[in-house]
Amino acid sequence: MTQRFTGRAALVTGAGSGIGRAVARALAAEGANVVVAGRRRGPLDETVALIEEAGGKALAVTADVSRAADVEAAVAAAVDRFGSLDVAVNNAGVLDGRGPVADVDEDAWRRLIDINVTGVFLALRAEVRRMRTQPGGGAIVNIASRIGVHSRLPGTTGYAVSKAAVSVLTRGAALDHIADGVRINAVSPGPTETAMSLRPGETEAQRAERMRSEVPLGRTSTLDEVAAAVLYLASDDAASVVGADLVVDGGATA
Q1: pLDDT of 61-106, one tens digit each?
Q2: Considering only CA atoms, which of 172, 72, 162 is closest in space to residue 109?
Q3: What is the domain extent for residue 61?
Q4: Is 1 among the domain residues?
Q5: Residue 253 lies in a domain
Q6: Other CB atoms within 10 A of residue 26 CB
Q7: I want to staple 138 with a disulfide (CB 3.0 to 4.6 A). Which of 5, 101, 131, 254 is the partner?
Q8: Tens of pLDDT along 162-219?
Q9: Phi, psi of 87 (to 5 degrees)
């Protein structure tokens, strides 16, 4: 295992499970001090425990990314505890408002926009404001989706709109802030081994069978595979990568 992030402080939102937890653990395994943020304290404490059991350092901060004060407090916590904010991964998101556009509930639509779009904007804003004051700047990776600018699926238009916005926000912010020393990129996962990729009532075994015909690779991406893509973009290995949207979907949108 390399140690690309030794001495660096990282913030991961939505780190209580799934991709967020996998990214937080991977960053810690490569030497980062990690602040894990999310709305529920219990899962965050579990992530911290997993990191600490493996010899890493982590801090749990309860935060709702749709609230500016919460995101700013999470950034401040990273700086207060670890002295800087060098890496940020904006992963918090929801898959809500399923169904045809005409049948989408207004509250579900607002929830998608509040968390998936406004939440990323507020996080980006707070992170960049800190990183651009640091001599070494920083790196930010937003988690978008292959559902969005890359492809659409029936019954997920609201989600697609929100994730397409993340892709565009990433590219725009990357151009705005590379001169500040802040590199901003995105990863767009396809079907991954999380509950979000399960259809209502579907088992993991049924999903695996479906993936054999729906995805050229023949399976879902693992959490470690998605985390590896995130860490590449956040690392110095990607020093000249700016405004990229790296699709990790087993060839589904090839």
Answers
A1: 999 999 999 999 999 999 999 999 999 999 999 988 888 999 999 9
A2: 162
A3: 9-247
A4: no
A5: no
A6: 23
A7: 131
A8: 999 999 999 999 999 999 999 999 999 999 998 888 888 999 999 999 999 999 999 9
A9: -140, 140
Strand order in the sheet with 138-143: 57-62, 33-38, 9-13, 87-90, 138-143, 182-189, 245-248
Tell me the DSSP string of 73-139: HHHHHHHHHHS---EEEE--------S-GGG--HHHHHHHIIIIIIHHHHHHHHHHHHHTTSTT-EE
In the prediction, which pLDDT does 1 show? 63
| C-alpha span between 168 and 151 (Å, rounded) | 14
Angle value at C-alpha 242, between 189 and 23, nearest 5 degrees: 40
For residue 141, how many other CB atoms are within 10 A of its CB? 27
Residue where the block lists tokens 């990776």: 141
Residues paired with 192 in a beta bridge: 221
Number of structural domains the chain divides into: 1
Which helix or strand (DSSP H or E) is residue 237 part of? none
Is residue 143 in some structural domain? yes
CATH number at residue 198: 3.40.50.720
DSSP-derived 3-state class of residue 162: helix
Residue 252 inside a domain? The answer is no
Answer positive or negative: Cα dihedral of 175, 124, 34, 246: negative
- The tokens describing 127, both together, are 């992170």
User: Angle CA(205)–CA(145)–CA(215) in degrees, nearest 5?
Assistant: 40
**Strands, E assignment, 122-221:** 138-143, 182-189
